[in-house]
Amino acid sequence: MDLDPEDVFKDEEDDLDNEFYHQSESSKEYVVYLVDASPKMFNTTCAGNDQKDETHFHTAVSCVAGSLKTQIISRSYDEVAICFFNTREKKNLQDLNGVFVFNVAEREHLDRPTARLIKEFDCIEESFMREIGSQYGIVPGSRENSLYNALWVAQALLRKGSIKTADKRILLFTNEDDPFGSLQDAAKKDMTRTTLQRAKDAQDLGISIELLPLSRPDSEFNVSTFYADLIGLDGEDLAQFMPSASQKLEDMKDQLRKRMFTKRVVRRIEFQIANGLSIELNTYALIRPTVPGAITWLDSVTNHPLKTERSLICEDTGALIQEPPKLFQPYRNENVKFLPEEIAEIKRISPGKLRLLGFKPLSCLKDYYNLRPSTFVYPSDQDEITSAGAQMEPPGMHMIYLPYADDIRDDEEIFPDTEEDAPRADEDQIQKAAALIKRIYVKDFSAFQFANPALQRHYAVLQALALAEDDIPETIDETASDEEGLTRPAVVRAAEAFKHSVYGDSYDEESDMGKEKMSEASRKRKAIAENAAKDYDWGNLADKGQLKNLTVGDLKVYLNAHNLPVSGKKEALISRILTHMGK
């Protein structure tokens, strides 16, 4: 088997099929969606995305449904469970009142989301009152505690897996900030104490509890009343909780169909400082290109993934080769053979350790030295500093990949002898250009504000196919120009001022874009295309149906000669020609 030199020395990060880009067992996430189904969730309304009133229950259900659809694409290995509390009916392994675990056939309670689960959950509101029902689970004179029961059921669902190999979370949706407000004195204190202890037990097992509060129109959700103690908020974290929780809810409602690489250790390396002093570092990939998922071949009958096996056959005898293939590299009319161990040794050009060589000023690091996304290195024995659930001061640094000296070229090498001929802008033109840029400048710009429209369309088609939807969800191209914004009077005035400053008051934009300004090369190409088009009797070919006998290149000759698009397959080109000829 011939060696591929490019493959031997290829970086692991350049291989999109590398395990680096795939979810693994160690990065799984187990999530239980805990949704309050009390009558207050159905009676309270808020303005939805279309400015129509919607119940808090509808808001919570739509958030969960959107998250499930996104998860199939972004985190397909994660497992979820959906649990309602304050319900009339009960359905859970512990047989506790007021808790209903929603599920479909042929699926465990905590499992990867399926198309059937999503389709049936999308219709849950239509049948909820009839099949599950809503009621207050905490009432005076009763020892029933539906919130306690819900946390117990959620904790039991998350017994699966180890906290060393998976993150476990409970997402709690409710609009009741004081679940024990209807109780008095001893009963209230007792239920509060037992519920907080149940939450603490879950957190001691490595389960995080996240609250997604829904505020009523007449009053804001007061997290200090009860839930601050349940999820462990105080001080600055408590003050920042409501804005961050509201943003988290909006993010879930408007969640994009995009692949999110969860934070996970790429690899561990040793950082050698000096005199035998070294520390272990974890490395993280902060930014990586998003690509469509790999194709998975399925069995046409069972719909199960197929396992691919490869066999090598001898060209001379046709027999199966049982021995592992030998690798070789042709050299001077001779095949130099390599063992797999030798190939591994060749690729191992360094011991995989970082060594401190010295220090240089930051001014030596240029922006254009950045060849590819950096890797974040982080000491493995230091705890994170967090606030309101977000990391504040990561005790690490970015490892930037630098080019070799031969890869950096001076401008004079790329653009020789252009110093005298290059036009220079005067001070007025620079000021007008700066004013125009200021008018169209996007404040607080972030690349995360704009989704890849091609990927969004790809994911929308996948969703429609998986859920057997008749209509493909509409995708918005956020990279398209803001036509409305560009027509604002201030922007138009700035653009006109810049145009007059550069081209003068007598500038005719139409004529500048016309044939008079066509470059010499463009005129030559057009003349060649027109002359080539005369070699065929296009009308006769079209009448006799012989256009299909021409090659794609021949068809493009006609299209280029008549300034028509040349994209598409052969059938599309022929149709375009016939339309242009009126046939």
TrEMBL record:
GO molecular function: ATP binding; damaged DNA binding; DNA helicase activity; double-stranded DNA binding; hydrolase activity; telomeric DNA binding
Gene Ontology process terms (BP): DNA recombination; double-strand break repair via nonhomologous end joining; telomere maintenance
Protein localization: Nucleus
Catalytic activities: ATP + H2O = ADP + phosphate + H(+)
GO CC terms of this entry: Ku70:Ku80 complex
Domain SAP: 547-581
SUPFAM superfamilies the UniProt entry points to: SAP domain, SPOC domain-like, vWA-like
SMART domains linked: Ku78, SAP
Root EC class: hydrolase
Keyword terms, alphabetized: ATP-binding, DNA damage, DNA recombination, DNA repair, DNA-binding, Helicase, Hydrolase, Nucleotide-binding, Nucleus
Entry keyword annotation includes S-adenosyl-L-methionine: no
Stored InterPro entries: DNA_bd_Ku70/Ku80, Ku70, KU70_core_dom, Ku_C, Ku_N, SAP_dom, SAP_dom_sf, SPOC-like_C_dom_sf
Top-level taxon of origin: Eukaryota
EC code(s) of this entry: 3.6.4.12
PANTHER family per record: KU AUTOANTIGEN DNA HELICASE, X-RAY REPAIR CROSS-COMPLEMENTING PROTEIN 6
NCBIfam families per record: ku70
Similarity comment: family membership: Belongs to the ku70 family.
Name the record gives this protein: DNA helicase
Organism: Gossypium tomentosum
